[in-house]
Specification:
2 domains; 6-stranded antiparallel sheet; TIM Barrel; Immunoglobulin-like; 24% strand; 9 helices; 20 strands; alpha/beta; globular
Length: 420
């Protein structure tokens, strides 16, 4: 039996869902670390699924209907992400009927939910999804926008079941896909309805894609013990406008997960969007790296390509920063085993992840840090990684003692130490 098939069967067994097997390269829960994401593949042949980290545009929410700023269309957005960077795109299927879109922003024939799905529209979506798959862009697919008022009774109506099943059946063949039940679900559904919808998606999906839900701001996931849901699409809101607050909020959410589900920073409102309008690439990048050091499974940049509130496309440099973050982290084979580290830092400002043979320290303002490396017990290879350019600067072999490191300049740097 090929190794990847055995890996897939093991993955499904670990998750307790023997009825479905993932596609090659599909995003899955890491069997050894269920609160982290992996790809259903073993490209580096280390007998473990390859780690996944998502970083990319958190919009435009109206992508599927061409509600895009900057004069771009859907293919332009995909091309820009493919060319410059990012591996995820946030989009919503139903934005009408009380949502943030116009009356035509839904996938129904003549925009009438009673008439079923519009097959011609789904064919257009399929072309874009194929392009996204080829470019390595995850489809972060939300069924419902906030405040949508369609089938808001607790039970699932036949017409609602038909459209959910129809969407799942149309697009489940894409490995680069995450299902999200709703944005700010509390604005439309009671919790029991969310669980029923997630169960329906699970039942209809032949490949067991990840399923999550988005909430109003807060770090507590309302479905922590719900087996129907794998992922918390977290929103942080007013008052979270420093790196320290981003880190502490993300860290709190991850600790509350306690291995039961993945946490993804899906929205930082309004700070992320304000920085986009200001063109503040540096602070956006620092937010994304800081959240990653808190062990979230991904970060989406709110406001990109949105037409509301004077928002705009991300710059090519912002997109490239997304790419450097997710590629660096996905290149760490034991990424999912690393944990936030409060003990090693003795002096200076940094956010740390560490494990048995590796340590990552992100210095958002450069400077000097003192690290106590005694727990590593053996010599480590050290290097600086530049999040702005991708440059690597070798430091050399470091003994497992207390050591002082000074960043090459006053910008942000990542210190990477690992046992060869």
């Amino acid at each position: 039996m090929p190794r990847w098939i055995g890996l897939f069967l093991w993955t499904v067994a670990c998750l307790g869902r023997t009825e479905a097997e993932p596609l090659l390269g599909q995003l899955i829960r890491d069997p050894a670390h269920p609160d982290r994401l992996s790809y259903a593949q073993d490209a580096d042949e280390n007998e473990q699924p390859d780690p996944a980290f998502l970083c990319g545009p958190g919009g435009p929410e109206g992508f599927l209907y061409g509600d895009i700023s900057g004069g771009a269309d859907q293919e332009t957005v995909i091309q820009q992400i493919a060319e410059h960077g990012g591996n995820v795109l946030y989009l919503i299927a139903v934005r009408s009927h009380g949502g943030d879109g116009g009356p035509t922003e839904n996938p129904f024939r003549e925009h009438d939910p009673r008439r079923g799905l519009d097959s011609a529209l789904l064919e257009r979506w399929e072309r874009w999804f194929q392009q996204m798959e080829q470019a390595g862009i995850t489809i972060f697919f939300l069924f419902y926008d906030d405040d949508v008022d369609l089938w808001n009774e607790a039970a699932i109506a036949p017409a609602e079941r038909a459209w959910i099943e129809g969407i799942v059946n149309a697009f489940e063949h894409h490995p680069n896909l995450i299902w999200i039940v709703a944005e700010e679900y509390q604005e439309s559904f009671p919790p029991e309805k969310v669980r029923r919808l997630a169960a329906l998606i699970r039942e209809a999906d032949d490949y067991d894609h990840l399923i999550g839900v988005h909430q109003l701001p807060g770090t507590e996931f309302h479905f922590a013990d719900a087996p129907e849901l794998d992922l918390f699409a977290m929103q942080l809101g007013q008052g979270v406008d420093t790196l320290e607050e981003v880190y502490s909020s993300c860290r709190q959410a991850v600790e509350q997960a306690a291995g039961r589900y993945s946490v993804l920073l899906a929205e930082l409102h309004p700070w992320h969007a304000d920085l986009l309008v200001q063109g503040d690439r540096a602070t956006v990048r620092k937010i994304n790296w800081t959240a990653a050091m808190a062990r979230v499974s991904g970060v989406l940049h709110l406001g990109t390509w949105e037409t509301a509130q004077d928002r705009r496309p991300p710059t090519p440099e912002m997109l490239a920063d997304y790419r450097r973050l997710h590629r660096f982290l996905e290149g760490i084979e034991d990424l999912n085993a690393l944990r936030p580290d409060d003990r090693t830092l003795r002096e200076g400002k940094a956010y740390l992840l560490s494990g048995a043979t590796r340590l990552l320290a992100y210095l958002p303002e450069g400077g000097t840090v003192v690290l106590d490396l005694k727990d590593q017990r053996e010599a480590l290879q050290a290097e600086w990684y530049n999040p702005r350019t991708g440059e690597r600067r070798a430091i050399g072999t470091i003994a497992p003692t207390e050591h002082r490191f000074t960043a090459p300049d006053a910008s942000d740097w990542l210190l990477h130490l690992n046992r060869p």
